[in-house]
């Protein structure tokens, strides 16, 4: 019996569905790390936290389409994208766990403006990647501009990471307590996510 493989459009639709969930997770993370978001109380974060973990669990079933990937170049490229999406998913999970570890700390005293900038840009990258996949489904040339935006945001995050590390060193006088250590780890995770998103976008541009 011949196996019914997915075509290019169906594959892109499946990837877009995964990215829609990851985009929501990235928004939740940004809201929690935002030092100027006064509308987020501990109670509302507890609800969003549960939703974020639920979204991560729900993503597992969304990868089932990989069983129907064609045995050709498109299938190989899609497998690479899936690998990066899983890296993004697992890294977001680490960020959420690290935030849990800091639950007793006052975020507005730990995280600086650079943290907010990085988390916002990661969210913007996730949104742009989802949009780019949709653009590729429609075969529009706009996806090239979206790719350039993603690459530019990734470079900005690299620069932001250097700045925030310097700010941490100045603020702590070189010492690193537990909150500062965790902040560095979260910044590193967010930077890794930006790398994965850029790599995804570059592969998507080839499908």
Which terms would index this structure?
0% strand, 207 residues, globular, 7 helices
Task: Give an overview of the whole structure.
This protein is an all-alpha fold. The protein has one domain: Methane Monooxygenase Hydroxylase, Chain G, domain 1 (Up-down Bundle). It has helices at residues 8-33, 42-62, 73-101, 107-110, 113-137, 142-172, 178-204. It is globular, with a radius of gyration of 18 Å. The mean pLDDT is 87.
Number of domains: 1
Number of strands: 0
Helix percentage = over 70%
Q: Biggest sheet, in brief?
A: none
The mean pLDDT is 87
Oligomer: single chain
Specify the number of helices. Answer: 7
Overall CATH architecture: Up-down Bundle
Low-confidence stretches: none
Element string (H = helix, E = strand): HHHHHHH
Beta content? under 5%
Sequence-ordered SSE layout with sheet pairings:
Elements: H1 8-33, H2 42-62, H3 73-101, H4 107-110, H5 113-137, H6 142-172, H7 178-204
Please provide a brief summary of the model:
With 207 residues, the chain is mainly alpha-helical. It has helices at 8-33, 42-62, 73-101, 107-110, 113-137, 142-172, 178-204.
């Amino acid at each position: 019996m011949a196996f019914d493989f997915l075509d290019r459009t169906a594959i892109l639709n499946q990837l877009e569905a995964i990215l829609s969930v990851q985009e929501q997770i990235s928004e939740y993370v940004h809201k929690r790390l935002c030092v100027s978001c006064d509308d987020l109380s501990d109670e509302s974060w507890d609800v969003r936290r549960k939703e974020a973990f639920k979204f991560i669990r729900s993503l597992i079933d969304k990868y089932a389409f990989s069983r129907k990937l064609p045995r050709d170049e498109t299938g190989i490229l899609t497998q690479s994208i899936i690998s990066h999406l899983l890296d993004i998913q697992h890294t977001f999970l680490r960020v959420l766990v690290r935030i849990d570890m800091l639950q007793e700390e006052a975020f507005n005293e730990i995280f600086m403006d650079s943290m907010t900038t990085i988390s916002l840009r990661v969210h913007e990258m996730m949104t742009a990647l989802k949009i780019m996949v949709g653009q590729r489904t429609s075969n529009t040339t706009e996806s090239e501009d979206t790719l350039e935006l993603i690459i530019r945001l990734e470079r900005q995050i690299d620069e932001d990471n250097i700045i925030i590390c310097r700010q941490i060193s100045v603020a702590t006088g070189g010492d690193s307590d537990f909150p500062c250590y965790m902040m560095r780890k979260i910044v590193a995770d967010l930077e890794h996510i930006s790398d994965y998103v850029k790599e995804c976008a570059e592969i998507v541009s080839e499908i």
